[in-house]
Amino acid sequence: FKQTQKLEALRYSTAIELGANYSWIYGRLMLNANLTYNWTPKAYLSHTLAPINISTIDTSTYTTRTISHYPAEYRDKFQKNIIVSLKYGVNYFVPNLKSKHTLRLYASFESAGMLLTGLNKLANAISGKNKTWIVAGYEYSTYEMAEFSLRYYYIINKNNSVATRFNIGMAFPLFGSRNIPFEKSFFLGGANSMRAWAYRALGPGSYHSEASIQRTGDLKLEINIEYRGTIYKALKFGIFADMGNVWLSRKYADMPGAEFNIKTFYKEIAIGVGAGLRFDFNFFLIRLDYGLPLYDPSRLQGNQWFNEAYVKSKLWKWGQGFQFAIGHAF
Predict the structure, then answer these.
(1) Is the model's pLDDT at 61 over the cut of 80?
(2) If you placed Cys at 175, which of 41, 142, 197, 286 could pair as Cys (CB 3.0 to 4.6 Å)?
């Protein structure tokens, strides 16, 4: 730590953010407002605190038709919601300037609905009733959520390196809430996670369905390893393996195998492998990857491993493995 002085820093900022997002797939309008404090006491340590974070999720008249192919109990994730939460995040990396090793840790926490639950209990005590009050037509969600990400990088030389990531997330509904809202649930697939699957196309668990649905879970586990090399100057390549899945925290009707089970979850860890090209211009990087689903726990028993029969089946969508992105996946 002789060079620690060079890493000293003290920066802070306050932000008020307002946002809106509309999902045409589900006909849902999402509004968000939050107050956020950011401070960096050291160059290798930063904190983010949002003590006031309010989101509303408004369901349009088209939603019922759109989600009709989801299992009935799962559709509760799409209900009209107001979310009042507190968020905290911390980012840390080991400050060793001379080493070829880099270790980064990120953790985030979110607590939602505690304030509204307290106001609900107070309203019940005053009125003498025992019910869940609705705020301006919105039901409120109560849950606790945490996510951890550990990243390790090893620089072999100026042209070659190895990058790894371990990521785990957990969310649990509390005080009468039975579901985590769809927008707050964890998902895998796409350019930055399980690249052999399309966006929100993996899981949950070993649940099998041929319906075209976006898949999410209350628990997430993902492990990635990638070798990064150089072909010529700015033209580079990557060879990777991704492992992971998402699970629901409880059993859902008509969704067998979707819930997390400590005795069987290891059998439900999907495996994808692949390779890709990178165009690295220092100030930004263009990435094109292709991932192959080597092991998919959602396929029928005995056919989870990639084989000729799977390629010939209607479940095989060879184009889903193409991933285009700006920047590295992790």
Answers:
(1) no
(2) 142
